[in-house]
Amino acid sequence: MTAGFLSNRDYRESGGGGAIPLFPLVDIGNATTLSAPGTRVTAPQTLTSFGYEPFSAFNILNTNTYQFGDNFTAFLGKHNVTVGTYNELYKYTNGFAPQYYGAFVYNSLQDFYASAATADAPYGYNYTNGALTPASPLMVCARPSVINCATRHCPMARSHMP
């Protein structure tokens, strides 16, 4: 019989913090809109982007892998018969806070200069009293059940949760 256990803990910390807070993602378009044929999906064509990468803040991927196997071999004269099993069981915990530091989308450089972010810019939302309400453009909050950070890893995430 063989048995095994593997534990992987992948956690990405956000840089910055302290006296220098992280800057939100800013996308500036070139005033051209792209659309997919046969759909109602449109998106501004990006001229430039700067700020924090939106998908890695407080990213946690914990994986536990359990393995076990066993073989039974019967020696039957000229023949050997082996019957066995090998099994792997996986347990995953995946948590992330997309656009945790905020995101601003501008259709053009002129809109950026005028501080005219698009109406559908993904500012983020604040989950308060069981209802989603728009958050301040510089603050993104998450429902606590969405982000399950280990206590030693995410002091900033806990301080921003409602």
List the helices and strands and how they pair.
Elements: E1 2-12, E2 25-35, E3 42-50, E4 59-76, E5 79-95, E6 103-106, H1 109-113, E7 125-128, E8 131-134, H2 155-160
Parallel strand pairs: 2-6
Antiparallel strand pairs: 1-4, 2-3, 4-5, 7-8
Summarize the structure.
With 162 residues, the chain is mainly beta.
Q: Would you give an account of this structure?
A:
The chain has 162 residues and is mainly β. It has one domain (2-160). 7% of the residues lie in helices and 48% in strands. It has helices at 109-113, 155-160; strands spanning 2-12, 25-35, 42-50, 59-76, 79-95, 103-106, 125-128, 131-134. The strands form three sheets. Strands 1-4-5 form a three-stranded antiparallel beta sheet, with no helix packed on it. A three-stranded mixed beta sheet has the order 3-2-6. Strand 2 and strand 3 (42-50) form a beta hairpin.
CA-atom Rg in angstroms: 25 Å
Strand order of the largest sheet: 1-4-5
Mean pLDDT: 71
Number of strands: 8
Strand content: over 45%
Question: How does the helix and strand content classify structurally?
Answer: mainly beta
Shape descriptor = elongated
Helix tally equals 2
Distance between the termini: 50 Å
Task: State the low-pLDDT regions, or none.
Answer: 121-127, 132-162
- Helix percent reads under 10%
Tally of individual domains: 1
Order of SSEs: EEEEEEHEEH
Let me know the largest β-sheet: 3 strands, antiparallel
